[in-house]
Amino acid sequence: MISRAYRKAVITAGGNPALLRAMAFLWRSIPYGPRRLVTALFIKFVLWEKRVLKVDQQNELTPQKDLGSLAYWGVPQFDLTEFRLNIDGAVGQPLSLSFDELRSQPSTERPVRMDCVGGFRNNSVMAGLAVQPLLERAEVSTEALRAVFHCADGYHVSIELSDLQEKDPFLAYAINGQEEPKFGFPLRLAIPGKYGYQWVKWIVRIEVVTDQRKGYWAALGLPDRGDVW
Fold first, then answer.
1. Quick one: CA torsion of 174, 70, 43, 162, rounded to 10 degrees?
2. CA-to-CA distance for 72 and 189, rounded, in angstroms?
3. How far is CA 148 from CA 58, 80, 142, 212, 216, in A?
4. pTM for the model
5. What is the pLDDT of residue 150?
6. pLDDT 10s digits, 140-176
7. Is 146 exposed, middle or buried (0-12, 13-18, 19+ CB in 10 A)?
8. Given this model, what pLDDT does residue 221 score?
9. Residue 83: alpha-carbon gap to chain centroid
10. What is the pLDDT, as a whole number, of residue 16?
């Protein structure tokens, strides 16, 4: 079945950017209209398969070695003494925060479930700091519509501010008590209820915008909101 095979493939391919890029190239080679249709049908099939395999009943923690993670452009390297998270755009008070400043903020730790559109699921415990207080501190404009999360590897997602208020996401710096770069350290977005391609890793900037621009994969044909079906 796809979900079992996919998890095994992700563990193998996650550390092979060249293979991941080749897979993405094949998907992108399909014309945009058919690509969206094929993607929607694939997601529906995976959802059906999850019901058959009773994946929704699998709530035990995923062993660290079995956690799925994708890195299409490789895993970025950071010097934490120079790391900054910048929050700018349509805000009244732009922020530039060091990792130590972020770690000094009130923290949260809770179990989360991340579903990949390909079928696998990670159940883990993540620790980090809430997104909403940072946006409030930055004084987001009343005209703002979305926050674009930019990553060190060039990837980005665009999430509606209303979703950020509703989903109560946080910027995670530890997963199952460990700070591992391949899982997004130093900062990864944890946003329950969204598919894994919205859980961006290696965040370095949050850009608040007044338009409806899409994220990287959404612009190529994946659902814009990224809500788990």
1. 50
2. 17
3. 32, 22, 16, 10, 10
4. 0.86
5. 98
6. 999 999 999 999 999 999 999 999 999 999 999 999 9
7. buried
8. 86
9. 19
10. 65
Full strand arrangement of the beta sheet holding 203-209: 95-98, 84-89, 203-209, 146-151, 156-160
The class of domain 2-220 in CATH terms is: alpha beta
Amino acid (one-letter) located at 142: T
Give the chain as a DSSP string.
-HHHHHHHHHHHHTT-HHHHHHHHHHHHTS-HHHHHHHHHHHHHHHHHHHHHHTGGG--SPPPGGG-----TT------TTT-EEEEEESBSS-EEEEHHHHHTS--EEEEEEEE-TTS-EEEEEEEEEEHHHHHHHTTB-TT--EEEEEETTS-EEEEEHHHHHHH--EEEEEETTB--GGGTTT-EEE-TTBBGGGS-BSEEEEEEESS----HHHHHTS-SS-B--
Give first-to-last CA distance, the chain, whole Å.
19
Quick one: residue 219, left, alpha or beta (phi over 0 = left, psi -120 to 50 = alpha)?
Answer: alpha
Which pLDDT score is estimated for 2? Answer: 46
Of the candidates 70, 32, 71, 89, the one whose C-alpha atom is nearest the C-alpha of residue 205 is 89
Measured between alpha carbons, how far is 84 from 101 in angstroms, rounded to an integer?
A: 9
- CA-nearest of 139, 121, 113 to 192 is 113
* 129 beta partners: 171
Closest CA to 187 of 116, 113, 107, 119: 107
Higher-pLDDT residue of 120 and 110 is 110
